[in-house]
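Dear colleague,

Following up on yesterday's call, I've attached the two folding results inline so they're easy to grep. Please treat them as preliminary; we haven't cross-checked anything against experimental data yet. The first protein's sequence and structure tokens come first.
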Amino acid sequence: MYKKYIKRCLDFLLSLCAIIILSPILLVLCILVRTKLGSPIFFHQERPGRHEKIFTLCKFRTMTDERDENGELLPDSMRLTRFGKFLRATSLDELPELFNILKGDMSIIGPRPLLVSYLPYYSEREKLRHSVRPGLTGLAQVSGRNFIDWDRRMEKDVEYVENLTFAMDLKVLWMTVQTVLGHSEEVAEDTNAVEGNFAEIRKKRLEETGSLEKKEAAF
């Protein structure tokens, strides 16, 4: 009952209330991002949601568009400013995702939506993470997101899906509050070597087992 009906109703009501209550903060952040980082204010990227349906994730941008003499974007580390790091460390850059939750693309609690390019590299068990809506925060994030390897992180996502209850969501929500208030980097989205390497790690593993061609054909 909770997973099928109540969770979505709570997501809608809570995200709507949060947008209304946080609207002054959202407005201030829009002004600061525009002033300090430029335009556009928001970062949009396609991500897979429930049943692998693609949706457009919305976040505050955290990097500039600085380029080298050849017009090429500078490395992420050089474009990430102190203000951008602050947005990530406090998870304020994630606030626009409240609109994704309101629309039904996402949930407050659930596996984080990763890159579309990762889809061919999940195991059959790991694909269970896409049987629910992706979340603003999730069990993997509060279990040490940037400090556990991909296999354990995916296992945490599956563990969440297999044990999805109201009590589980309350637990993850409470752990998220503790993590954010503690200014931990565990829930801070970064451009990050961890996330960026997933496809490469799995591709290498599949090549070593000789099953890459079969995986890509199936995708």
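Below is the second protein, in the same order (sequence, then structure):
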Amino acid sequence: MRHGFGYRKLNKTGEHRKALFKNMLNSLIKYEQIITTLPKAKELKPQIDKVITIGKKNILSNKKRLFSKLQNKNSVTKVFEELSKRYSTRKGGYSRVLKAGFRTGDDAPMAVIELVDRNLEAKKVDKPKKVETKENEKKVQKVASK
């Protein structure tokens, strides 16, 4: 029988595991899709579903509760403003885990965890856009000086 086996410990201390999942939750909320190992993804899925369920009820106590869990103001606002509206009619199952082969270094099983109906532009949040415009300005200046 499986009595007493509540969750995967992942060979980490309690503090390390808590910090790991906090960071993974923030990344998943920000980018809406992350790649990690399969056991971590399976442990993260119920947590992100609970976070989104808490965010669907827009009251101050839920905001404080989420902020204590995520400790990131941007993530909390995204959950309450964007994700709660997106999943307002859905009763659960806000995320999915897809197997993604094995890592080359240690052959660990990898997985993609993503939000259902995700925004495809969310992955490009941190990509710099000004690099391309600076290169174009330099080309325009060279052409104009000739």
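For the second protein, one point worth flagging: The chain has five helices and three strands.

Best wishes,
A.L.
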